[in-house]
Amino acid sequence: MQPRFCIDLALRSSPRLPLPAAASEALKMLHDGFQQRPGHYALALPNAPERALSRLRVFAGSVLELESLAFRARHLPARISDVIEVPEHYDGPWMRYHRFRIPSRKSDVSGPWLTLGQPTDARALNKLEGMPRERRMRQALAARLPYFELQSASTRQAFRLIVEPIAAEGPITADPEPDGFGLSVTTRPFALPSASRLSGWA
To answer: How much is the mean pLDDT over the chain?
Structure first.
C-alpha cells in the first residue's frame, strides 16, 4: 500500500450523536470497507491532539479505492472531501498512528480491590497501579490519547480502540502494511504524511 492519495471526513456532531459517537460510527463503517481490501487503506487523525476525532483521513494507493470508500461513507454524519493527491516529492512532516494496546484483564493479578471497588490502603493502590492493564490505561489517560468505542464482530463484546500519534522522521517503510483499522502496529510500523496543507475541499 502506497499513501499516494487521501480523503478527509470532517465529522458533524449533534445532540443525538456527540462527536465521539460520530467518530466511532464512522470508523465502524470504514473498518467494514477496509476489510474488503485488507492492507489497502491507512487511517490518520490530522487534527490530533486537540480535536483528534473531528476529522478522519484515509490514505490509499489509488483514486478508485478512495472513491469507492467515499461512496460507502455517504450516509455518515460527515463532510467528505474530494480525493487529495499527495505530492510526489512530499517533504513535510510525517506521523505514525499507532494502535495503543491495553492488556487483557488476565494480565493483572486478581485481588479483592478489583471487584469490590477502590483500594482501601496505599499498599493496595501501589499494587494496582503497577499492574500491566492499569498502568497502560493510566498512560493513555495521561497522554489524552484519542479512542473509539467499538464492538467486536465475532464476540459482540465492546472494546476501546486507542490511537497514539507519534511523530516520525519519514515513512519508516516503503511498503506500509496497515492493520484492519488502517493503523500502524508494533510489528509493522509505518508513518503517513501529516501536513495540514493537504486539502481536497471542493
So the answer is: 84
